[in-house]
Design brief:
The structure is a single chain. By secondary structure, the chain is α+β, with helices and mostly antiparallel strands. It has one domain (9-61, 81-111). The chain is built from 4 helices and 3 strands. Strands 1-2-3 form a 3-stranded mixed β-sheet, with helices on one face. The radius of gyration is 17 Å and the shape is globular. 6% of the residues are buried.
């Protein structure tokens, strides 16, 4: 974790996450107005806190680790592995329910 100051704040966030080679970024809910900026420019996985203390997925970067030969393995290509995050069971249940709710909302919108 690192705390930094500067102006404009959205560029400070972008500069720090890039220079630290961050793999996962949690953005404060007060920066929600810059959500599109972060989604387009952050090179890492990102979530943004919401007003009820939960998180909204902003950007999840997928990594294709399928390899056809040992020479192409992630170890030899120096590809960073996706981060592993340990979360509480309560947060896990909350995230699963939000994913299911978003999928149901999307299905409902397609039907209308």
């Amino acid at each position: 974790m690192k705390v930094a100051m500067g102006h404009p704040l959205k560029l400070v966030v972008l500069e720090q996450t890039t220079s630290l080679h961050a793999t996962f970024v949690v953005i404060d809910r007060h920066l929600k107005k810059n959500k599109a900026f972060y989604a387009d420019r952050l090179p890492s996985n990102a979530v943004i806190m919401n007003s009820d203390g939960g998180v909204d997925m902003l950007k999840i970067r997928s990594t294709d680790l399928s390899c056809s030969t040992p020479e192409q393995s992630p170890a030899t290509l120096n590809i960073p592995l996706p981060p592993q995050i340990m979360i509480s069971e309560e947060l896990s249940v909350l995230l699963r329910s939000r994913i299911h709710q978003q999928a149901a909302d999307n299905d409902h919108q397609k039907d209308n």
